[in-house]
Amino acid sequence: MADKNTKKKLSAKSILAKTGPGIIMAAAAVGTGTVTTSAILGARYEYGMVWMVILALLMRGIYMRSTYISQVVLGMPVLDSVNAFYGRTLCAISGFVCAFGCIAYEVGNFSGCGISMSLLFPMDWKLGGVIMTVVCVVLIFGKSVYRRVEKAMKVCVFIMILGFFIALVFAGGPSPAGMVQGLVPSLPDADALFTMLAFIGSCAAISGVVYGTHLSKEKKWSKEDIKDGTITWDVILGAGSIAVIVLLVLLTSAKVLYPQGIMVSEVSDLTTLFATIVGSAAPYLLGICLLAASTSSLLVSAQMGATLLLAGFGREAKMEDNDVKFLSLAILVIGAVTAFVFGSSSPTQVLLIANVCAVINAPLLAVLIIMIVNRKEMGEYKSSKLNNVALIICCLALFAVTIYNLLKLLGVI
Question: What is the model's pTM?
């Protein structure tokens, strides 16, 4: 008779079927801003910041796995645990700042969708943004929302990886020696430190990790999914997808733009990068990649903001709930109207709100998560000493990001 405690080895098909929350979070994290930042890193530092990308996504993975396990064991997403163990006030503050951070970034997501559509079709970017917003609304108000969103985000992530991989191949591939050298931690110049903190704040954003626990609840994971490796695989696929996409863009930019001394400052500058690689096909390849990035962020950020705002006030929030659907719609409308009024670039006031939210939620939630995963209610799944060390190191890094954001708010840097 087979040992009942023997772990079943998951097949590739089972892994794809049983995972999903990590991919949804990855799709939200990789918007046009992340793609542009990745290109900036390659154009400015060549391969010098490869190590930083890996570090940032490792941090994200550590927090993801810890919060997933706490949700499964306690039966509650992070904000529900905060509400149950530490009071309504902390929960409300956490949910409020997470939600408004999401809302602030919807302006850029709407603009990214519009710019992507204008690359593919002869239309004004505002019309393109409206079309993709309508697509998101259809998904939000459809049936079996979680299942449809998960499938759509898996497709978007696949398109991004394939598109940027094609670009890297046509560029001639990266330098193996340069990549190896890029794995050695270093700061090429004084601005590299601030660039690193900004990137960590974006790709290791704690609000996305918190939302992941709501997604894991909708996925209906159990302790068996901890034991058979499903949760670990979800972390690998989620954080790994972000790393792969960012590195593909960074390496392509390092190969093409760095030798020519061409700098990137905004998403429209990426046409120069792609035109050098694929010529007249550049608008189409870039448009497809950016459309997948911006649309996925537009959709998930709206649902994330709605879910975390409701959870912050003690409301159970699922994708199928009408409260989540209509609040998501409101967030999409706010993003669209703001973009119409201020143009394709996020207004200073909106970015200020995003930075204020980041200053509050990063240290607060980082500490609360460590407290939650170490509670006695976690039983045998209580965080280990090694995991606590890793969490504390990540927490200190997020505190550094907070100081950076605070200095930006004060105009010091």
Answer: 0.91
